[in-house]
Amino acid sequence: MGKPEIPERDPRSHWDAIYSNAEPSRLSWHQQFPIESLDLIEASCVDAGAPIIDVGGGASSLADCLLHRGYGNITVLDCSEVALDQARQRLGSMAEEIRWLTGDVRNFRTGEKFMLWHDRALFHFMVDASDRRKYLETLDACLDAEGHVVLGAFALCGPGTCSGLEVMRYDESLISELFAPRFRIVSTMFSRHETPSGQPQDFMFFYMQRVKE
Ligand SMILES: C[S@@+](CC[C@H](N)C(=O)[O-])C[C@H]1O[C@@H](n2cnc3c(N)ncnc32)[C@H](O)[C@@H]1O
Prior knowledge:
This protein is an alpha/beta fold. The chain has a single domain (31-210), classed as Vaccinia Virus protein VP39 (Rossmann fold, 3-Layer(aba) Sandwich), CATH 3.40.50.
């Protein structure tokens, strides 16, 4: 008999409370301008009309920046409706140009195949092996056969917790162990994020391509 599956914790109430209790610009992961993500997305050379998904996008300004750079097929997925509402309010009428989906990345499915999957600071919350497996199954199911992944997670020297939750920290070999052989790492980028309260947080960004079967 296999090991019994650990029941999934529903992340919605935790994250709705986090976003309800602070201004988005006061949250530790807030970035005025997501430069690392934008640079890596541009380096992937995906077409401006290619479907892009930002998983765990929350209230991030990445979607706004992508629109300004001419990308026209953007989806933001997050478990927190409160976070997505904040992003929509900030964008005003431009919000209509983005598809907003409330859901859990671990069981998200859609008929669409995305050409680029972006994640800054969601994957590192997948601390259970079963959650990482479900995340990777979603990625597998939702990404085009020639798709690209831009993933930002805490570096080995980064924080061990975020918003009161334990996180996993990554370097190139740990990411490769989880994403290979389906994905190959094309480039990595170290980045020191400064939180709104002035604390440094070390991130690693990984740009990966799907390996042709
Ligand atoms: C640290 S925040 C990062 C937000 C955004 N990516 C950014 O860089 O500003 C993590 C985000 O992941 C979302 N999240 C956490 N667990 C999730 C899950 N299982 N499925 C979808 N979203 C989730 C949270 O609501 C939150 O918006």
